[in-house]
Write a structure and sequence with these properties.
It is a single chain. The chain has helices at 10-27, 31-37, 39-54, 60-70, 75-97, 106-123, 129-150, 155-189, 194-203, and strands spanning 2-3, 6-7. By secondary structure, it is mostly helical. The chain has a domain at 127-196. It has a two-stranded antiparallel ribbon with strand order 1-2. Strand 1 and strand 2 (6-7) form a beta hairpin. The protein is globular, with a radius of gyration of 20 Å.
Length: 206
């Protein structure tokens, strides 16, 4: 809560959000949604928030594929949910970043985002989902390797980082397999779907 001689506003924002959220959920009697009906969704978001804080990925990187591939939620609903939780999480993160000791990160983050985001969007515009998955995995792995090289070595941090990377890799591979299986079932049950047409056109010779 204390940063130098200044009190961090993060705690105040957390108390403000919880003070609004808890009475709202209690008043509507929605605790059963978290504890009975959708306990795995709560666990998923616990993992998603950890990944969002430990890496540059947002919580939606976990929420969206789990919602669509595991729970069968419509992509539009999962997209809106992922954007909502990222909006809340990124707002809280911005409050923590706007402090004197964190401003130096802006000199690195802003140029990378301003230049890298448009270039990345242009580069992957015509790529397949398999290529995009491999690129994301390579970016996360490079980030982990860079952190190991740049930060002072600590056995505890290294062990935790390896465990996090291994868990994320396992989840990443499993979600990819789950998505491929689900797409295959959809293509088999709906032969006239757009997905089937794309697969047929992709496999047919030019």
């Amino acid at each position: 809560m204390i940063a130098g001689n200044r009190t961090s506003p993060v705690g105040f924002v957390a108390v403000l959000i919880w003070g609004w959220w808890l009475p709202l959920i209690t008043g509507q009697g929605r605790w059963a949604d978290f504890l009975v009906d959708y306990p795995m969704m709560t666990l998923t978001m616990v993992v998603g928030s950890f990944i969002a804080g430990a890496t540059s990925e947002g919580g939606g990187a976990v929420a969206f594929p789990v919602l669509t591939l595991v729970f069968g939620v419509a992509p539009a609903v999962a997209r809106d949910f992922a954007l909502l939780i990222q909006a809340v999480g990124m707002t809280a993160a911005s409050v923590a970043m706007i402090q004197p000791q964190a401003w130096s990160f802006w000199y690195v983050c802003v140029p990378v985002v301003v230049v890298g985001a448009p270039l990345g969007a242009w580069f992957i515009r015509d790529r397949s989902s398999a290529v995009i998955r491999r690129l994301l995995y390579a970016c996360i792995g490079t980030q982990f390797l860079g952190a190991v090289i740049i930060l002072p070595f600590s056995l505890k941090m290294f062990t935790l980082g390896c465990a996090t990377f291994a868990t994320g890799s396992t989840l990443f591979i499993w979600l990819g397999w789950k998505g491929s299986t689900r797409r295959g079932r959809l293509a088999d049950t709906n032969p006239g779907s757009t997905l089937t047409a794309r697969r047929t056109s992709a496999s047919s010779p030019p």
